[in-house]
Every structure is written in structure tokens, then in C-alpha cells.
């Protein structure tokens, strides 16, 4: 999966992974090892999260569209036939 992150974002994520391993597993992992964990997450976990976010977004947009349709319908004026 292609994820666009800035260099700073990637560095922050790598540091977060290292911190997680240190705080939760008492393991000091190298930057290289943290990058491998990050690669695994990007390839195997991120697509599920991304798809869930897309599904949530689709739901919100559909609800907003339905609301707009209702508002537009309320603006319509009846046509009197003669």
C-alpha cells in the first residue's frame, strides 16, 4: 500500500515504535528493526484501517448528500396546472 508520509512523520513513527518496544517489552530495538515493524504495519495492517476510514467517510458523505437532497426538495414549488 502506498502511503505518503513526510520524512519527519516517518522518523516520528519509527521513534514511537522504538519507544513502544522499550516501554512495553523492555526491548531496545534499532532504527532498522523499527523500520521493519513499520513496513509490516504499512503492508499488512494499514490497508484494513484505511478501508475502514474510507467506509466511514462514504457513510458520512452519503448522509450529507441525503440531507442536501431533502433540503433541495423542500425548496421546490408546486406547479399549478390550468
From TrEMBL:
<dbReference type="Pfam" id="PF09932">
    <property type="entry name" value="DUF2164"/>
</dbReference>
<protein>
    <submittedName>
        <fullName>DUF2164 domain-containing protein</fullName>
    </submittedName>
</protein>
<dbReference type="InterPro" id="IPR018680">
    <property type="entry name" value="DUF2164"/>
</dbReference>
